[in-house]
Design brief:
This protein has 280 residues and is an alpha+beta fold. The chain folds into two domains: 201 residues, no CATH class; 71 residues, no CATH class. The chain has a two-stranded antiparallel ribbon with strand order 1-6. The protein has a two-stranded antiparallel sheet with strand order 2-5. The chain has a two-stranded antiparallel ribbon with strand order 3-4. β7 and β8 form a beta hairpin. α2 packs antiparallel against α3 and α5 runs parallel beside α6. The longest helix has 25 residues. The protein is globular.
């Protein structure tokens, strides 16, 4: 799973400068963020400035854009050295925080603490935050596993939305909860009261959204009685992406990135449009 998980933070065909940074659940939040022995913080800034000058000279001769990426990465690492320790220090969070998110938010690596960290990142100006909850691939053993999975995400998700709203951040933040495909409503594997499962189902699936520009309290789309096919208001993944870009103030048809000689577009070359029915 490690290789698959690593792709979650990749920028795909975009430059490496747009890749995400994963925060670890134990040990140092980010590897190699601490200064090595003999290199105190006051000397780091002049050292990076000198290294940047050398890299700029190299770039002027070779013209490799990855050189600029490396400069940007060094600068981001320096900013993280000064900001990550404070970001991940939850000792000053009041008791009301843990009443909201639940006691699991005190434990490193829990989904509840990830939701709390998401709020702390957003209020510090981080523009994109992704948290990940594994273990939903329930081809069997649903009665035992699913209740604990739902318990994990229920309070944390609710708390995050409420916390953002209370701090005046929800209007400028889009919260999305979802996966990459649905599950069948009919049973897979054995069929007993204590052991049954559901298979992958890419034909239709659901997600929920809250926050800036999204109309609350509505349901959009409908399946047949077997939840097998969409029968009303389908939303293609490209339409969903076009909707998100619209919420960000971006015209998806003009949002391109040159890669291997082609102007790539997130919504592809197929017809796509924002879903106006869910816009506030």
């Amino acid at each position: 799973m490690q290789a698959i998980s690593a792709r979650l933070w990749s920028a795909g065909f975009l430059s490496a400068r747009y890749s995400g940074v994963a925060l670890r659940s134990s040990g140092d939040p980010v590897l190699y963020i601490n200064n090595p022995e003999g290199a105190p913080s006051p000397v780091r800034r002049p050292m990076l400035d000198a290294l940047s000058e050398l890299n700029q000279i190299h770039y002027s001769k070779i013209g490799d854009p990855e050189t600029l990426v490396r400069i940007a990465q060094f600068e981001m690492a320096f900013r993280m050295q000064t900001s990550v320790p404070e970001l991940t220090d939850l000792s000053k969070e009041p008791a009301s925080t843990y009443k909201l998110y639940g006691e699991d938010a005190r434990k490193s690596g829990t989904f509840a603490q990830s939701c709390l960290m998401a709020r702390r990142l957003v209020e510090r100006g981080v523009r994109f935050v992704q948290i990940y909850h594994r273990g939903w691939d329930l081809h069997a053993n649903i009665p035992e596993v699913l209740p604990s999975q739902c318990k994990d995400v229920d309070q944390g998700c609710w708390a995050l939305v409420q916390d953002l709203k209370a701090r005046g951040l929800l209007d400028s933040t889009v919260v999305i909860w979802g996966g990459e495909f649905g599950r069948t409503v009919y049973s897979q594997s054995t069929l007993t009261p204590t052991d049954h499962g559901r298979d992958h189902h890419p034909r239709c699936f659901s997600l929920w959204m809250a926050g800036g520009g999204v109309k609350g309290g509505i349901v959009h789309g409908e399946t047949d009685e077997f939840s097998y096919n969409i029968v009303k208001d389908p939303v293609h993944v490209h339409d969903f992406q076009a909707t998100l870009l619209h919420l960000f103030g971006i015209n998806h048809e003009k949002f391109t990135y040159k890669y291997q000689g082609l102007d790539q577009r997130l919504t592809g070359v197929e017809s796509a449009s924002p879903v106006k029915a869910i816009l506030a």
